């Protein structure tokens, strides 16, 4: 059995942001602790007039598929589907058309490496437990900023209030968002993101999605979830769950357009059981 890869907060991973436009971005990272700096890709939702991509739905190979897990939603799958768009002078890729008609898109390049959260940054409530004070806390947002404002965030045996947002959330929706051109920001719409923990060796994607959606955050810019990455693979039989992807990662990376050779990047999804680990897509395609 391959051990979970944990990256400490003091190292950085890349970010791939996701934005929802009536638009969406992604961040890069690995299944890691926060002091790790890794690439990130931003993710978000946007609104703009575009050809109806659902006229070209496929059932095999690269292309746009109906999302069998979430009604009314469509997702791009395969090694290199034609999901490129140019917006604001930058190249993006469409992750999905959401049920409400918005598009979730990700930047086709990563941002500078950054930690998800730093050791010592959040040390109260849930974030005071386990190794979170040393390596950083894996809760994406404060409980006050979660949908419904729950009094506590629970992950395995750890439970408690989360009293501040993660450093990466603060950066993306503060400094990074404010750096965008006004015309670009006008097309970004607030979106709801599932931020619940994902179980290691998960072999039930529907159950995983339910777990991710146990806690939600509403905001402008976020990261992909673990289920976003799994859904982007067109080889469901071999690669359709976390456990399958990690058992056959050398094969699965060839049918997943989100895989980026040589790059590890953050997701929005906390690791289960621990208070300091976060899932990432590693440079070999392993979660």
Task: List its salient traits.
alpha+beta, 287 residues, eight-stranded mixed sheet, 17% helix, three-stranded antiparallel sheet
Rounded to the nearest angstrom, the radius of gyration is 17 Å
Mean pLDDT: 86
Structural class: alpha+beta
Count of domains: 1
Q: How many distinct beta strands?
A: 15
User: Main β-sheet, in a few words?
Assistant: 8 strands, mixed
Element order, helices and strands? EEEEEEEEEHEEHHEHEHHHHEE
The quaternary organization reads as single chain
Distance between the termini: 14 Å
InterPro entries: DUF6273 (IPR046240)
Protein name: DUF6273 domain-containing protein
Domain DUF6273: 164-285
Organism: Candidatus Coprosoma intestinipullorum
Walk me through this protein's architecture:
With 287 residues, the protein is of the alpha+beta class. It has one domain. 17% of the residues lie in helices and 25% in strands. The chain contains 8 helices and 15 strands. It has helices spanning 132-135, 167-179, 182-185, 205-212, 226-231, 236-239, 242-247, 249-252, and strands at 13-21, 32-33, 37-46, 63-66, 74-77, 84-87, 90-97, 103-107, 114-115, 153-155, 158-160, 191-194, 216-219, 265-270, 277-281. Strands 1, 3, 4, 5, 6, 7, 8 and 9 form an 8-stranded mixed β-sheet that branches. The longest helix has 13 residues, at 167-179. It is globular, with a radius of gyration of 17 Å.
């Amino acid at each position: 059995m391959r051990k979970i890869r944990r990256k400490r907060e003091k190292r950085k991973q890349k970010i791939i942001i996701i934005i929802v436009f009536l638009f969406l971005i992604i961040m890069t990272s690995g299944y890691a602790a926060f002091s790790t700096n890794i690439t990130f890709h931003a993710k978000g939702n946007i609104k703009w007039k575009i050809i109806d991509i659902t006229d070209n739905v496929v059932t095999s190979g690269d292309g746009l598929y109906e999302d069998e897990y979430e009604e009314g939603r469509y997702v791009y799958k395969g090694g290199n589907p034609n999901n490129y768009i140019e917006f604001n002078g930058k190249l993006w890729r469409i992750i999905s058309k959401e049920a409400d008609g918005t598009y979730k898109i990700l930047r086709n390049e990563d941002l500078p490496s950054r930690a998800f959260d730093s050791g010592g940054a959040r040390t109260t409530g849930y974030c005071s437990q386990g190794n979170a004070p040393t390596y950083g806390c894996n809760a994406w947002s404060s409980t006050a900023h979660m949908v419904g404002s729950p009094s506590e965030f629970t992950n395995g045996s750890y439970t408690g209030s989360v009293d501040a947002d993660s450093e990466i959330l603060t950066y993306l929706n503060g400094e990074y968002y404010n750096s965008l051109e006004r015309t670009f920001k006008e097309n970004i719409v607030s979106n709801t993101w599932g931020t619940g923990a994902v179980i290691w060796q998960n072999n039930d994607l529907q159950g995983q999605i339910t777990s991710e959606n146990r806690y939600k955050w509403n905001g402008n810019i976020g990261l992909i979830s673990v289920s976003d990455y799994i859904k982007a693979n067109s080889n469901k039989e071999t690669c359709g769950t976390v456990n399958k992807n990690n058992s056959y990662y050398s094969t699965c990376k060839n049918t997943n357009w989100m895989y980026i050779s040589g790059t590890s990047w953050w997701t929005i999804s906390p690791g289960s059981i621990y208070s300091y680990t976060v899932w990432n897509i590693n440079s070999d395609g392993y979660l």
